[in-house]
Amino acid sequence: MLDREIVPRWRGLGGGKELTKDLETMSNKNNSHYNKKLQPFAKALRSDMTKAEACLWKYVLKARMMKGYQFRRQRPVLNYIADFMCKELNLIIEVDGITHTYEEVSLNDEKRTLELEKHGFRVLRYTDEEVLQQIDRVYNSIASWIEKNAKVPPPGPRQRGKRKL
Known about the structure:
39% of the residues lie in helices and 15% in strands. It is globular and about 40 Å long. The chain is of the alpha+beta class. The chain has helices at residues 7-10, 28-31, 39-46, 51-61, 103-118, 128-133, 135-149, and strands at 72-77, 80-86, 91-96, 122-127. It has a domain at 49-151: VSR Endonuclease (Endonuclease, Chain A). It has a 4-stranded mixed beta sheet, with helices on both faces.
């Protein structure tokens, strides 16, 4: 199990010099500012999701359940790890626990959101309580945002194992 004191640094809350990467080298079109240096941390977070993150993933975002769009969980973006991201929509969904009500963490969230929006992403934030107690409302909120803002239809499913005759 991960030490919870370390996790916020992985998510971009004070990552320091060791996580700094030249943002200009991250391709905007091909990989949506994917930061390979954060990959091991993202992998660890995927196996240690919060209850709210796990519920949102299982009941709303997994396997193209959200209007056919593919979401990725714990995705390294810039110098942050987004809880959920849809590359096609440039949409990031964050699930905030109780610590996000603290002033310092809240200010870091604002800074992070501004940085992500500067690079073309839209950030939707939900609290743990919203996800755990009103998941239908969260689903409808995300679906509504997609209906209003999607510029491209969801990509079709990948075709694997089809033989050409």
